[in-house]
Automatic annotation (TrEMBL), chain A:
Alphabetized InterPro entries for the sequence: DhaM (IPR039643), PTS_EIIA_man-typ (IPR004701), PTS_EIIA_man-typ_sf (IPR036662)
Keyword Transferase assigned: yes
UniProt entry keywords in alphabetical sequence: Transferase
UniProt cross-references to PANTHER family, sorted A to Z: PEP-DEPENDENT DIHYDROXYACETONE KINASE, PHOSPHORYL DONOR SUBUNIT DHAM
Stated name of the protein: PTS fructose transporter subunit IIA
Short name of one Pfam family: EIIA-man
Residue ranges of domain PTS EIIA type-4 in the record: 7-137
Species the sequence originates in: Streptomyces boluensis
GO annotation, biological process: glycerol catabolic process; phosphoenolpyruvate-dependent sugar phosphotransferase system
GO CC field: membrane
GO molecular function terms noted in the UniProt entry: phosphoenolpyruvate-glycerone phosphotransferase activity
Length: 137, 204
């Protein structure tokens, strides 16, 4: 088991600050006992409205970066496009930041559980992406 | 015909675009309230105000640098999908122009083509999806003819989105109900090319 300095960071980007924060709380709660991976919510715009803030995303990504990579999960529309554009900028997000293609809520839980268990960025991204496969009927 | 474009030309294009967006913001938001989330005008106004502010210290002198700086501001400040899309357009166009002090209209047309390609790659839209791409593609093609031709082609491209059904973005959730409305993104793209033609006219 790795200590916190080696854990993958998780960033949750939603159009809504309430959604991003609540999903972060949910994922942390379901990750169970022991230390959890660093997680940060980047929801809404800087003035508290619905939307996407490049500055909140960048700040959140740097706040959870422990050098093991940062998995960024997004909800839709401008959240997806803004993270892609920031990654293309090259210097806005920490080295090792990656947009993870996953459902927002289920993917966040899988990512936090995997990262908390010491999984590397590939493992975290794979676990989050696999959440697409959990059928509900 | 104007064919040597320097950094000052690009600076004036973007400040003219900012003024145009500011003037037309209510119209853009009105179009966006029909098929989107009614924030396009306010978002672009905020983004272009940041562009104007960033260009004021005149740190960016060359055409490419002006566009890269402006694109960065739009990605950071807009807060909606148009931010990363227009930001990518300007930033990629600026990078394609390189660091020359002057460029020709044809070089701008080619660089914008790279910019539009980056936009379609980022957003996944193709012509006919009722997006900004429907104004940008014909405008860039027509820019090889003249600035006025590019303005007219963008305007026609934007108007041609009215009968289309949206296939990208929030408007696509509306299905057939998106038909009959002009796309706000195509409309703001036409404003950018109107500002370009206006800038060229004033430079002549």
């Amino acid at each position: 088991m790795s200590d916190d300095t080696q854990r993958v960071g998780i960033v949750l980007v939603s159009h809504s600050a309430a959604v991003a924060t609540a999903v972060a709380d949910l994922a942390t709660g379901l990750a169970g006992g022991g230390g959890t991976a660093p997680i940060a919510a980047a929801g809404g715009t800087e003035d508290g409205g619905l939307g996407t803030s490049a500055e909140l995303i960048s700040g959140a990504a740097h706040s959870v970066d422990r050098g093991a990579g940062v998995a960024v999960l997004v909800d839709l529309g401008s959240a997806v496009l803004t993270v892609k554009a920031l990654l293309a900028e090259g210097d806005e997000l920490p080295d090792g930041a990656r947009l993870v293609d996953a459902p927002f809520v289920e993917g966040a839980v899988a990512a936090v559980v995997t990262a908390s268990a010491g999984g590397d960025l590939d493992a975290v991204a794979a676990a989050a992406g696999e959440a697409y496969g959990y059928r509900k009927e | 015909m104007l064919d040597v474009l320097d950094g000052d030309f690009f600076r004036r294009w973007l400040t003219t675009a900012a003024a145009t967006v500011d003037r037309e913001a209510d119209r853009l938001t009105e179009l966006d309230s029909a098929i989107g989330d009614a924030d396009h005008g306010a978002n672009l106004r905020r983004g272009f105000a940041a562009v104007t502010e960033a260009l004021a210290p005149r740190d960016a002198d060359h055409p490419g640098a002006v566009l890269v700086l402006a694109g960065r501001q739009l990605i950071s400040k807009v807060g909606g999908a148009s931010g990363p899309l227009y930001g990518t357009l300007l930033r990629t166009t600026g990078k394609a122009l390189g660091d020359g002090a002057e460029v020709s209209r044809e070089e701008l047309a080619q660089a914008l083509r790279a910019g539009v390609d980056a936009v379609t790659k980022l957003g996944g839209a193709t012509p006919g999806d009722k997006t900004m791409v429907d104004a940008l593609v014909p405008a860039v093609d027509a820019l090889s003819t003249s600035f006025d031709a590019a303005r007219d082609a963008a305007e026609q491209g934007a108007e041609a989105t009215i009968p289309l059904q949206a296939r990208k973005g929030r408007a696509s959730y509306l299905g057939e109900r998106s038909i009959g409305h002009q796309d706000p993104g195509a409309t703001s793209s036409a404003l950018l090319f109107a500002a370009l033609a206006e800038t060229a006219e004033a430079t002549r």
